[in-house]
Amino acid sequence: MSGSVQALMMVKKAGVPPPLPVASFTRTPSGGTLPLAVQCTDTSTDAPGATYAWTFGDGGTSTAKNPTHVYAGTGTYTIGLTIRVYGVYYTAPGQTVQVTAAVVPVAAFTAVPLSGQVPLSVQFTDTSVNASGASYAWVFGDGATSTAQNPQHTYNAAGNWNAQLTITVAAVPYASPIQVIAAAAVPPPTPVASFTRTPASGLVPLSVQFTDTSLNAGGATYYWVFGDGGTSTAQNPQHTYNSPGTYNPQLTITVGGTGYASPPQTVTVSAVPVAAYFRTPSSGPNPLSVQFYDQSNPAPSAWSWNFGDGGVSSAQNPQHTYLNYGTFTTTLNVTIGGQNYAAIPQSVTATPVVDGYSLVCGNINTAFGRSGLGYNQQTGDPVGSVNPLTFQGAQILELYGDNVEIVLTLSGIHAADFFHGLNLPGVTQLNWLNAYYFNSVGGVNTQWKWNTPWLWSDGSSFNFSMTR
Questions:
Q1: Which residues contact 258 (CB under 8 A, 6 or more apart)?
Q2: Three-class DSSP labels, 141-196
Q3: What is the DSSP secondary structure assignment for residue 370, as one 8-state letter?
Q4: Looking at residue 187, what is its pLDDT?
Q5: Taking CA 395 as the corner, what is the angle to CA 389 and CA 401, rounded to the nearest 5 degrees?
Q6: Contact 201/211 with Cβ under 8 angstroms?
Q7: How, if at all, do strands 109-112 and 120-126 pair?
Q8: Strand 36-42 versus strand 68-71 pairing type
Q9: 389 pLDDT above the threshold of 60
Q10: Integer CA distances (angstroms), 107 to 132, 177, 218, 308, in order
């Protein structure tokens, strides 16, 4: 009996028409990545004794009631179900499945920095994809490990270290590419050439001690240039500068085949200080004004003048007036660089002037007195024969008011018998009675002194006068 007839007979027998079968199903999941396994479950109703015909859209089929189908390719597929009930076919609405490419976990990471000097601290950061629920296993290449997601690690030894991350997703391990961490040893510090010099300045010849103060210069060799043509290869040389000038010594050190030059320094060598001066004029009638000029080298910082007549000055170029006559020794002491230096003394001669007259000597190298005879200095009587007295000089000693003091210096056997005065035009005669000697050699009076204004009574005179 056919199914349709059987169904009709059942209807007739029950008196109520039976419900028609309805084909339906579910699929789980409705989409996913390769490989995608989809569970198809029949949910048809009023389908007793049904048979099943499934199509999965990728060419695959099944007659199972609740089949599982695995999609091996990407795409959108329509699943269809047809049931056969009592020889009648009923088709369920089709349902689609979206299949995409498989998403494979990719282990990856960053390391910052990738290089540097030890101790080198590196931050490792996980950048893996498709790694939900992953666990982490790091190896840093130097024997250290970590299971943190984003660890930090410090390399204390120099070297190129291979760091790698392995993630495990759904019990499957995935390893990242290796990254090399370059940890470099700390390089030695750069050598720095430097030195000191003592002293930095002074007088020629100047001996200077040079001392190496270079840094990071183990095993260095040394080459000095002193600026005056001299050189040295000693570490701490001594050098003498023999000429004045400004010099620029410099040190070059060589470390590991590389030269390093110091900044140059300055050494100043000065000539030996010389105290000197000149005066103008060096002689003349008093009162005599003299200008003194310092010629010391180098320039002093202080001056001390002594003019020989009790006058002093601390000026550099003083002017001084000599009120008395005579020869005066002048001196200059200067201070240069904290040291005292004395100039060679020089003399100044101030010649006398009496009431506007200068002392002039005439020809008196003859016998003194009347008729060429000498006279007893006490009685005025002629004595002996003609025997000339030799005139050796005359000098005005003092000027005060109207008084003049004159000294005559004579020689000869009758020097002790000299007695006459002399006439001074415009000035009162000298009185021999007021003459006195003040110097005696071997019992003979050789220097005589007169004081004016005493008179000589008989008017006799020498050829000796005062002239303007």
A1: 191
A2: CCCCEECCCCCEEEECCCEEEEEEEEEEECCEEEECCCEEEEEECCCCCCCECCEE
A3: G
A4: 87
A5: 130
A6: no
A7: antiparallel
A8: antiparallel
A9: no
A10: 11, 8, 49, 108
CB atoms within 10 A of CB 462: 21
pLDDT band at 440 (very low <50, low <70, confident <90, very high): low
Q: What is the DSSP letter of 419?
A: -
The domains found in the chain, sorted by start residue, are 3-100 (2.60.40.10), 109-184 (2.60.40.10), 195-270 (2.60.40.10), 277-351 (2.60.40.10), 358-467 (no CATH)
pLDDT-based confidence at residue 361 (cuts at 50, 70, 90):
very low
Distance CA 407, CA 417 (A): 16
> What residues have CB less than 8 Å from 79, skipping those under 6 apart?
25, 27, 38, 40, 54, 55, 56, 57, 69, 94, 95, 96, 97
Residue 236 and residue 253 in contact, taking contact as beta carbons nearer than 8 Å: no
User: What mean pLDDT comes out for the span 178-196?
Assistant: 95
End-to-end CA distance of the chain, in Å?
Answer: 192
| Strand partners for 161 | 181
Residue bearing tokens 């002039």: 360
Q: Characterize the bridge pairing of strands 115-117 and 95-100.
A: unpaired
Q: Tokens 């001196």 appear where?
A: 331
Q: Distance (Å, rounded) from C-alpha 52 to C-alpha 40?
A: 12
